[in-house]
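User: Let's play a game. I give you a shape written as tokens, and you guess the letters that built it. Ready? Here's round one.
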């Protein structure tokens, strides 16, 4: 199962892709990480999916990542006496604390915290932005608005408040329950929805206690305003373009996608680009040309991973969607323009010995046209550092920890092999060459560069590199 591309693919599981046969087909087609959306998944179903993925992982002998996406706090209006109303432009419409069924003049808003932060002039977006309200007056029990963009509004539709930072955690009680269940099941990545501030990440990190990596979904303007701080605390970010495009003008989203991708790359944190990438493949066996271009753009930017949502979870062509992403990635990465674009975005390494070693490994690998960069990495930090540099050859990460291999399955350019730790430096170099040969990343007589931390097994101590000639599978390397 050697992939011929560097960009990773995340496939969401759902009604169209929840049995073992289909999940195996998605993996064979190119999925590297499987996403489980807790907005639509019970704890029992989540545990069943995790067990199935681990079964497939054992069968194929390659680490597979599992990303659990927490729902986050959902803000919704109450119910209407007749199920829905039609709001006209210019109407006055009130959201209040009265839990009586609503009508064309008012509706219950069962979130007391909102009333303390909304101010006149703020915008409220209902039903994914289809209805837009402008706040005129606010009291402790009512928000009086003017309808700027009207339309149909029905029971329990969502509310977005792009101009205000809400005074509550990104982890609702349901999220905390889901988080503990996911950690107990042994998942690898946790995605936090609707975060607004770095404190949301710190809270989740405290709860996970290192049992899973934490991904920040950037889908609110408030998170964009503090992206530096959020990046510093999180292990990865997701460019969640759906909700971001609700709370911000759509024309701003492409620019912000590029900004987030580049900032994450500079920080050495994996970045996932998500939402509507191949949306038409929910019901069509082929995507639109614009969707293909959208996926390609994310790959040219150097995103670590691209994600399928409803296309693989509920669509009619989940395998075809993964296969299409795989083919697009291979085509882009073989384009003669790909390397110049990737290299143009390269930044100086951090002023640490470990980052300097990783940067030197890239320069040597590119200059000498080596076959692979082989990293010994217990915690994954060495592999992440090398991936940040985006070397030309693929990265083979060797780790004694299966959990490390699973988490690295999200990271650009890394093919992870789980193996016992090396006994000493000679054993480290010899086995690195044998594994690169066996996995098909180097042929006999070619050279690889080996990156590791000494003493072996010391987390984060990337301080050594060696160039070695690859022999046949049973030969020792000539370092």
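Assistant: Ready! My guess for every position:
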């Amino acid at each position: 199962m050697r992939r011929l591309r560097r960009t990773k693919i995340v496939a969401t599981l759902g009604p169209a892709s929840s049995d073992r046969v289909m999940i195996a087909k998605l993996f064979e087609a190119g999925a590297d990480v499987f996403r489980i959306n807790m907005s639509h998944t019970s704890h029992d179903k989540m545990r069943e999916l995790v067990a199935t993925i681990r079964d497939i992982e054992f069968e194929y002998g390659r680490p597979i990542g599992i990303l659990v996406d927490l729902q986050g706090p959902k803000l919704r209006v109450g119910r209407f006496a007749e199920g829905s109303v039609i709001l006209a432009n210019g109407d006055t419409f009130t959201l209040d604390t009265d839990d009586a069924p609503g009508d064309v003049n008012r509706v219950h808003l069962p979130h007391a915290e909102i009333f303390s932060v909304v101010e006149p002039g703020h915008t409220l977006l209902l039903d994914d932005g289809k209805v837009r309200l402008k706040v005129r007056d606010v009291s402790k029990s009512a928000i009086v608005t003017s309808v700027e963009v009207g339309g149909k509004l029905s029971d329990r539709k969502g509310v977005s408040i792009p101009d205000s930072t809400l005074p509550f955690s990104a982890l609702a009680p349901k999220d905390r329950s889901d988080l503990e269940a996911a950690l107990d099941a042994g998942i690898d990545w946790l995605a936090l929805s609707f975060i607004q501030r770095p404190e949301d990440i710190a809270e989740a990190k405290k709860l996970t206690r290192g049992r899973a990596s934490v991904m920040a979904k950037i889908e609110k303007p408030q998170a964009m305003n503090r992206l530096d701080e959020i990046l510093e605390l999180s292990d990865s970010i997701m460019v969640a373009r759906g909700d971001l495009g609700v709370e911000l003008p759509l024309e701003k989203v492409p620019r912000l996608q590029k900004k987030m991708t580049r900032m994450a790359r500079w920080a050495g944190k994996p970045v996932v680009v998500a939402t509507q990438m191949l949306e038409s493949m929910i019901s069509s066996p082929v995507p639109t040309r614009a969707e293909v271009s959208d996926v390609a753009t994310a790959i040219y930017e150097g995103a670590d991973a691209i994600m399928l949502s409803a296309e693989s979870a509920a669509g009619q062509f989940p395998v075809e969607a993964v296969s299409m992403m795989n083919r697009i990635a291979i085509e882009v990465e073989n384009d003669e323009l790909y390397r110049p674009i990737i290299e143009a975005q390269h930044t100086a390494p951090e002023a640490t010995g470990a980052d300097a070693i990783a940067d030197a490994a890239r320069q040597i690998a590119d200059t000498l046209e080596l076959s692979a960069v082989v990293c010994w990495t217990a915690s994954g930090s060495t592999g992440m550092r090398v991936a940040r540099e985006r070397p030309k050859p693929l990265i083979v990460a060797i780790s004694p920890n299966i959990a490390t291999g699973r988490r690295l399955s999200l990271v650009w350019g890394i093919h992870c092999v789980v193996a016992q730790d090396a006994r000493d430096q000679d054993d480290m170099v010899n086995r690195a060459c044998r594994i690169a040969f066996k996995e098909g990343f180097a042929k006999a007589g070619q050279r690889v560069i080996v990156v590791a931390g000494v003493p072996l097994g010391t987390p984060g101590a990337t301080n050594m590199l060696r160039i070695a000639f690859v022999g046949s599978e049973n030969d020792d390397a000539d370092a």
